[in-house]
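Handout, section 4.2: multi-component inputs.
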Amino acid sequence: MENSNPQIFADLLLEGSEPKVADFVTKSLGAGTDPLDFHSSIYSPALKIIGDKFGILEIFISELILTAELAQSISDNILLPQIKNSRKDIPEKKGVIVLGTVNSDLHDIGKKMVAMMLSVSGYKVIDLGVNINTNDFIDQAIREKADILALSALLTTSMVYMKDIVEMRDGLGYKDEFAIIIGGAPVTKEFAETIGADGYGSSASDAVLVCDELVSIK
Amino acid sequence: MKHRGRYLEVMKRAESGPIVSESEFDMTYIAQKTSELIKKYGIKFNPDQIINHDDDLADRVFQAGLELITHSGVFCQDTRRRIVWAENEYLEGLSTAPAECTIGQGSDKVNIRARKPEVQLRPIFGGSPVAVPIQEDQFVPFLLSYAKDPIFDFLPPPPTLLSAYSVPIKGGSPWEVIAGWRESELTKQVLSAAGRPGMAVDCVSISTTAAGGISSLSYGGYRPSDRALVSMVAELKTNYDELEKVVHVTRIDGNMEAFLASIYGGFLGGYEGLVIGMVAGSIGINQNYMPTTICSSSSHPLFRSGSSPGTIWTKSLALQALTRNASVLMTAMNSTAAGPGTKYILYENVAQAIAHTVSGACLIEASLSAHGTNPGHATPLEARIAAEASIAATEMTRLEANEVIGRITKMYESSLTEENIGKPFHKLYDIDTLEPLPEWTEQYKEVKEELRGLGVRIP
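Output:
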């Protein structure tokens, strides 16, 4: 079927015309495509295609944000209602990730890039922002029932807080409840291992792979 | 300094400017507007002209940057307000910015004068292991190896201490303040040992918050004749911490180096958007921080250096746009993907030094080596070759520089995404004499011969 190619859907999303995207989806469903099948074989793969383009910076963060917002709108207004009507289960997010830049660190854009990649890769992402203190990270991760707490730091003086966060999680008994992954310019795999973090991401794309692995073994 | 008379007005506008959410600022004021300006002014990255020699393009970039900052203002993250000024106010701010200044004290003092593209006046040159992390007990010999080299006029940001009195430094805590004092204490030991007590130093290398950045810039610590570092947050943003530093440095009548680093792939988009944002940011910094000097740079998340052809293009063109249209003290920094002990780091530094010099930088700092994140991975030799290349570049036109840099970038471009972090200082230098070991000196000499073969009249 002409409308069964996720690349075509991805291109439409990037073009940014909500009427055209809505028309594509409506025609596809009207031609008999099961909405759940559309979600798994066209919608989600299209977002992955877009995420991969961002991972190699073929597109930029503003395009990714607009595309993700458009995709979410189509999902909320057309796809999910159709899935509900067909009495099937709404596809779940892969997991819940609470994310932020640690205490005393105001670097934002890199963290935003990771948040967007995780979001288009199928995660529910709660971005707490920058300069987030240790207590707030832990409290939010518990409140949101996070699967993963993702920490960003761009300074050697702020990455030390990552150790505090791991220790607090473990000390409060939440080690088996949510994993902690870390990233940022001065952060290394060795540092992650030293402080007892569960994973390290060297880039936005890498963060997705690490999260996928952690969620799969949970 | 007379241009700082408006500092109270800046702070008032941070409390009274139009309110906007940060996401709307990013998407509408920055991303959308930049995209419009790229089309309006016909800005296009030309990979065959890494060093732009089209004056009309440079002037269009300046106009585009001026239009962007007039439209967006600078976003204050703490008040969620845009600090806005009219176009004529920005232009007046540029006209009253210092075109000359002095850093350092006594016989170590250095005069800095505004340059324009292709001017033969030599830029002032600073050498240090810019912000590279280092163990506390290695700080002094590491930095002294730079301070004792007479080719360097001042010390850019010292290495980043990993501890203060053996305690890891935590941003936002008293240990950050202690670390600022410890850094100044150790830096003074370096200057004394080098016989250059008045040499200017960029400070504070480790600071994150205002407390860390300000506290040791006072009696007994760093001096007004040093260069306090204040940053703009990407893209076109500020916050209370940075403005607190501005107020303090203004009140002690200190030198201030204000800097920004725009990010490829972020809200400014690609190279065309970056260069417009760098100009806009520089004008915004000048207006709101009233610095002595301004460093406008860009970074690429995949290459993590300032040496890719596209990044050099943005730095060179932004410098040209600003220095052609204002007499401001624009500076530049060399940053590399490769580390010391590799030829790549030498090529990366040479390409950037030539680009910055012919494009109008009045002061150059080298080198933020191996992304600046690998402990101890920096040596004076890569900064020295950059200084030597800068001297050679004062005799070059932009056209000649473009030809040479085009060939030099081909020598290292494919290595930018590899992890060629090289070796740490103590494996390339004699720790007792603080001189380079033969292996490293040989590579340095080979690269200089290669450069002479390309027509670079490097001393």
